[in-house]
Design goal:
single chain, 149 residues, alpha+beta, Lipocalin, 2 domains, 2 helices, elongated
Length: 149
């Protein structure tokens, strides 16, 4: 005749099974969860503040300006337009960060402006649809008076 298992053995066995299940689930999560870059810092308005220009001939008379929740687009001979930034979001990208800015005009129509940003060497901005056109920060402080549209 076999001895009856004691309550201590039953609890020990249950605890052992629970621990194995927990370690198994943790292992599966670590293997299949997407890798996250723990060194990524979200892009803020402070990172973008100032005036950005490009030496590219097509856009030599254009600029971007970020200032205290405002974005201003310089359109060359067509003037400029300023808009209130409603939201800024960013996510890691292979080359820096993808930045998504939601801005609104005076009629409260919302627009989206997406670009890539790299903080090194004073900052660099480029649009994925404009290959080889890079915007550099030329002033840390805004120099154009806002002209809201």
């Amino acid at each position: 005749m076999q001895p009856k298992p004691t309550k201590k053995r039953s609890w020990f066995r249950m605890a052992l099974v629970a621990a194995l299940v927990c370690f198994s689930v943790a292992g599966i999560i670590m293997i299949f969860a997407p890798e996250q870059d723990s060194s990524f810092s979200p892009v803020t308005m402070a990172d973008l503040n100032g005036v950005w220009t490009t030496p590219h001939p097509t856009y030599q008379d254009r600029f971007l300006q970020f200032d205290n929740g405002t974005i201003t687009f310089g359109w060359g001979a067509d003037g400029m337009g300023s808009y209130t930034i409603d939201d800024i979001d960013s996510e890691p990208d292979a080359e820096g960060a993808q930045v998504h800015i939601r801005y609104i005009d005076l009629a409260e129509t919302a627009y989206q402006f997406n670009f890539c940003y790299m903080a090194q060497s004073g900052g660099l901005i480029w649009m994925k649809n404009q290959k080889g056109i890079y915007w550099f920060r030329t002033s840390d402080q805004p120099i154009h008076t806002a002209n809201f549209k």
